[in-house]
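Q: Is it fine to ask for two folds in a single conversation?
A: Yes, each is treated on its own. Send the first.
Q: Here.
A: Result:
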Amino acid sequence: MTARPCREADVREWDGEADVVVVGYGVAGAAAAIGAAVEGADVLVLEHTGGWGGAAALAGGFVYLGGGTGVQKACGFHDTPEAMHRFLTAAMGPAADAAKIEVYSERSVEHFDWLVRCGVPFRAAFYDRPAWEPPGDEGLMYSGGENAHPFAAIAPPAPRGHLPRMADKRTGERGAGYQLMLHLATTAEQTGARARYGTRFLRLVVTDDGRVCGVVARSLGEDVAIRARRGVVLAAGSFTFNADMVARHVPALGGRPGSAVEQHDGRAIRAAQAVGADIAHLWACEAAVHADPGLMIRGVVVNGRGERVINEDTYPGRIGQELLLHHGSQSFVVADEEAADAAAADRAGTSMPAPPPTWVSEDIAELEQAMDVPAGALAATLGLYNRHAAEGHDPVHHKAAPWVRPLRPPYGVYDLRGQTSGFTLGGLRTDVDGAVLDIDGEAIDGLYAAGRTTAGIAAGGYASGISLGDGSFFGRRAGRAAAHG
């Protein structure tokens, strides 16, 4: 199906219209709808599925915020926009958008306050144990490795993973991401934004002079043309479920489960490219390794050759990226009984199961054979680690001292080979107000974008909460800019 634009002159009649047409009703789309509506624009949101939510509603729900939010202060943490800026500059990848990082850091507290005004609840409680997310309703956690090497030496550490409060949450069903979306969608409706569900975006409509003036979509089996009097905001997610684009740009993710929804098919990106839009960082992705962070941090993570690859106390997603992109997801966690018991204690009272080790033995040579790693490799790795751990430090990968302890037999090995999933991070190149830029760096008249449809502040690096954070932040700005045409 073509992504090439439709000429306005070829539209026989408009099947609907609004000042601002928003494509996609996830976190970026909801924020864009609110941003445009509060500026007095008539807003219509087009959503492929039967309701709002998108990938955001299924997410764990972290929103990456800092600089001194109310929750940070209530939990006793001092943070500044400068420290947040320094961390993001170091952690988001070598080609991260400096302008976006700057404005995001400077106005993060204001954005937190905006979310609260939208009704999003945050409990001022800090979760201090290693996990993908708090099992309860704690509202703050380290979510990017800020307190681990190398970032702890670059910027004063502060937890910035803000989690909306959700009673009886069920991540992947109705977790904190659902709570976030519930309040944003409610606010969008209260500000006057309209929604049209079961409507799949196909391509853009442009005037003879190249201005984007609407979209063509599929609804109830028919193609419909929707006019945008002031602007179109593309907020339709990533290209995680476009196999051809993944194979071309992020082959490491090919054939693996996508941490998104199937509507993240890249169509909005392709449609914008068809009207001259530039793209950035299509090679970038986030990855999750399906392992208990509490177990990884107390053990060692090794590759398919039995070698340690990273400091295990960092953000688990950073471990996943390292394993996927540099080790082909050939990896194992090696731990002992004390580590396994402590990790199980962290999970006590939660629904998270205790994973059994794949192999257990006191004989390292036997484990090496079972793992199919070179003879002596794991023995050398454990010998080096234990030697330094006995002295309370890790000079090889710089894991923080509280997590460094010699591992003692019997050893348990957890097979993580192939246990990764992820999503794409690259997309349309936009300015800090969401205007889609062409290959000359000029704004395409009438076209805006936000969320994973764009190249946000993450360009190879990541921290949990970045997608919901920059999606909602820059979504607001895109909606506001589109409202003023």
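Q: Second one now.
A: Result:
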Amino acid sequence: MEERFAFLTEWYDPTASLVKRYQLFYYPSSNSVEMYDIKNQRMFLRRSKYDGLNLDDLFVGNRITIFSRQLSVIDYGDPYTSKRLGSKKERTVALIKPDAVSKIGDILEMIYAANLILTKAKMTRLTWFQAADFYAEHQSKSFYNNLVQFVSSGPVVAMELMGNEAISVWRKLLGPTDSSIAKIEAPASVRAKFGTDNTQNAGHGSDSVAAAARESEFFFPTTVGRGPPNTAVLTDSTCCIIKPHALSEGLTGKIINSISAEGYKITALQMFSVDQVSAEEFFEIYKGIVTDYTSMVTELCSGPCMVLEVQGKDVTTSFRDFCGPSDPDMARHLRPTTLRALYGKDRVKNAVHCTDLPEDSPLEVQYFFKNLDD
């Protein structure tokens, strides 16, 4: 019998202002899908091939797009799917400490190579009291004060990672707590490459399922509160969006490394899941002007994106030039070292969005780091 996975999904119908539920079936052998309307008890989409989806995209909490319809995966649809896909799936928190924030691109590449999925991310700066709260379990340890002082000394990047046995996979990727030992015992680890000692050791990883849940709630609260604020300065900067397709293809680390290598400073970084209404609002200035407007909206809300605040000399103009022509084929012909030439696929899936005009830069940065982060 052909293998089939089932998921419970929700779709918000903006016309009717209703949330509709569908049973989504995925057949990996043919990369095809079908959808069943639960309320009306009828087939909504007969089995159809859909190349824009793969099994790695199908996990609880993710948002996927099926033929321009954005669905939230809220649960597994049958015991077989739950057992096969959910039994080993874990979420863990990865905290990149101040000494390794400049290496976030390299670390993201290591995370992708380890088959971990980045589900949330935010650059923030903890106060002494926030850092003390985060490390409260170590309060009686001799290194506690030094650890709290160091973690609150500069920006950090908090991430939620998901994957099979994610907690142990990330801790193994981190390496031994003491960076000097890591250099000997695990020379390919994060701490061996970017850490210095037992405190300035590049990163932190949750040590249990309970710790992961607590730490995720600390940085990405689902209840009352916003968590630690982002680091956006909102002035003298421009906006860069690493598009959903590039994020899902594991290009985020490479793109960030290219931006840093060009001499730009990333002053804020955060993942967002943009809904249809917000995507239309953000791209409103292109409506009726750019023929790809509808496709641009669909791509932006097709999954999580990574938004960067970037600073540099004459930043809006120079960064727009660095991104290159919107058509990657043209970019590869005319300017082969630009971001879109290196990482883009077509005019819509062209790796990154950047601000076109200097006067729009503060508006675009504020839209994400102030409006959508509220």
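Q: Anything structural to flag on that second result?
A: Two points. The CA atoms of residues 13 and 19 lie 6 Å apart. The chain has a mean pLDDT of 94.
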